[in-house]
Amino acid sequence: MINIECIQAAQGDCIWVEYGKDQDSLHRILIDGGTSDTYKRLKKRIKKLKPNERHFDLLVITHIDADHIAGILKLFEKDGLGITFSDIWFNGYKHLGKSRIKGVVQGELLSDYLEQPHLNWNKAFKGKAVSVDKRKKFKSIKLPGGMKLTLFSPTQKALSDLKPHWFKEAKKAGLLVDNKLPYKKDLDTCPSRSKRLSRRMLPDIDALAKTSFEPDSSLTNGSSIAFLAEYAGKKMLFTGDAYATILLDSIQRYLPECEPLYLDLFKIPHHGSDGNISKKLLERIRCSTYLVSTNGAYHKHPDKIAIARIIKYGGHKPDLYFNYLSKYNEIWSNTALQEKYQYNAHYPTDEQTSIKISFKKMQQ
Ligand SMILES: [Zn+2]
């Protein structure tokens, strides 16, 4: 079985993955910790585990933006939960490759923490950068319990491009000890549910999907760790805020015969921003289940163009899973729209603080 819980993380990501033969033999991966406030929900989720079960086979901190790392910083800071990790993937300053800037970085919170001898930092990469080497063949990483991971992003170039901007970006994310900034407050973006949309107000998906693609240029997003996860015949693509271009390039090199990449789940990069999901990328993938993580705060994600592209180019009757119902995604709940364009939209209930996708029927 596989359970994917996309925990509500305001505008960020916090994804809890469990896999195993049965409920008693589950393995765990945690991908990102969301915003600072997300820690409350993450802590609650961890506390649901018995103390002897509080182990993760892998923690992935995809990149240094605050909506992905702030909850993890708090988790490390407040660690009284007795959590252990077999491996932690994170690209710190020392992993960003050669550049003219010399000197030792001090006081960068996450790296200082990960330097502790009892922690395994990028163990699967022998302590080096978690990055795709385009000159070499893809090498899969096997986790305990049989999960297979194949890295699709970042490239070494994306990491070295970030290097000269690291201090500025780390400061923005509240990662530097000396410049610890207050985190942005989590904004509530509750929808106005009573409003009924008339047919005339419904978005024109065909027109939106045709909008020309303007790729994301954020250097931190480009440094995102993204990977294909395979377990018992199921394939999932977790992407952080990765570039569509890097993902597509990796898929093309992974499957050079032009065959599509079949997926059971695609976590849409960068919270459904239109700069991170292209027609070309969607056409190379065959997937029926798409996951979008955001409440729309600050950036009004997901963009209508991105969702329109998924509906139009994302295969037959795709299922869209949102981890919030917000004023920026409620439009997709419209039944006339779902009927007309043949897709299904799923949202958590008022009581839920995550959206869960489970795969029960598995290959042996
Ligand atoms: Zn993000």
Structure characterization notes:
It is a single chain. By secondary structure, the protein is α/β, with parallel strands linked by helices. It has helices at 38-47, 66-77, 109-114, 156-162, 166-172, 205-209, 219-222, 244-254, 279-284, 304-313, 335-341, and strands at 2-7, 15-19, 27-31, 55-56, 58-60, 84-85, 88-89, 141-142, 148-153, 226-231, 234-238, 261-263, 265-267, 285-287, 289-292, 319-322, 344-346, 354-359. Helix 1 (38-47) packs across helix 2 (66-77). The protein is globular. Strands 8-9-10-11-13-15-16-17 form an eight-stranded mixed beta sheet. The chain has one domain (2-101, 116-179, 186-359): Metallo-beta-lactamase, Chain A (4-Layer Sandwich), CATH 3.60.15. The chain is built from eleven helices and 18 strands. Helices cover 23% and strands 19% of the residues. Strand 10 (226-231) and strand 11 (234-238) form a beta hairpin. The protein binds zinc ion. Zinc ion (ZN) binds at residues 12, 65, 67-68, 241, 270-271. Zinc ion is lined by residues 12, 65, 67-68, 241, 270-271.
Query: How many structural units, i.e. domains?
Result: 1
The low-pLDDT segments are: none
The number of helical elements comes to 11
Rounded to an integer in angstroms, the radius of gyration calculated over CA atoms is 20 Å
Tell me the strand percentage band.
15-25%
Q: What's the helix-strand series?
A: EEEHEEHEEHEEHHHHEEHEEHEEHEHEE
Shape assignment: globular
Q: What is the CATH architecture annotation? A: 4-Layer Sandwich
